[in-house]
Amino acid sequence: MITVRVPLGDRSYDVLVGHGARNELAALLPRTARRAAVVTQAGIPMQVDPGVPFETFEIGDGERFKSLATIETLCRGFARMGLTRNDVIVGVGGGMVTDVAGFAASAWHRGVPVVHVSTTLLGMVDAAIGGKTGVNLEAVDGVGGKNLIGAYWQPSGVVCDLDALVTLSPREVRCGRGEMAKYHFLTGDDLLAMSEAERIARCVQIKAEVVAGDEREDGRRALLNYGHTLAHALEIETDYALAHGEAVGVGLVYAARLARRLGRIDDARVQQHYDVVRGAYELDTALPGGIDAQQLVRLMGLDKKVLDGGLTFVLDSERGVEVVQGVDPAAALAALGDMR
Ligand code: GLY
To answer: How far is the CA of 74 from the centre of ligand 1 (A)?
Structure first.
């Protein structure tokens, strides 16, 4: 078992990575927890024993269930159960489950402890770590977006049981690989040369270091969104037919193309992005067909990173990746054309 500490003062916590890590769940619960509300989905291939009496709440599968309506349903269940701050919520599932369970925990009684048991690669290397929680704002009249409503709410511990990975579909594996490819560009680490446990623990460690230095994304944490500006727009525009990690793969090479357009990197570095994303991580790098590029640029302008009303991206340079504000929409559009 590998333990990675997320160092956040009195809110520090451990992430356990290894086969059978679920058996350590009870040890991660706050000592005050008398009961647990286990939030999960039907078909999640992991039974957990929190070591205290518990009730299980299943949420729907699919982005449309990542909603305020789901939070309300959960809170009605917590009310029936009489869940208090001396209890704990346990999120068991992929990124959607831990985002929703974490947000419900942040809001119920103005904050109850939460522990995550991550069952997907993407969840283990990204979503379950770092305290970002939230749900989508359903689009009405074309206005809405992914993860627009949420809170920073750190878990008390995270379990990454590698036994769960054998049940993942090829698509879920691709999704995790999209986030891993991102870490490749943040650190230059050859993650694929490591064992599975080391690789996942290293991703957790990279994320833990970034989060410890900038928990609320006032600066460096935004770099974890490398490749995500286009990815979020693609997810929305394809009505989530393109899953998050798959969209991040496309978003990473798009970010390289845009950086090239802006004179920040050379052709060789763009090629490196293709070599890593398509070659090493075996992800699709093509823009899905039938997508309106102008609409993608408009959606990218609604991204949460936008600080000044202009387009904001995380872009590569000789100094490494940086947040770049005020990107010319014509350049963003032209870089989409370069992808065709
Ligand atoms: N997924 C990016 C972050 O947690 O900041």
So the answer is: 24
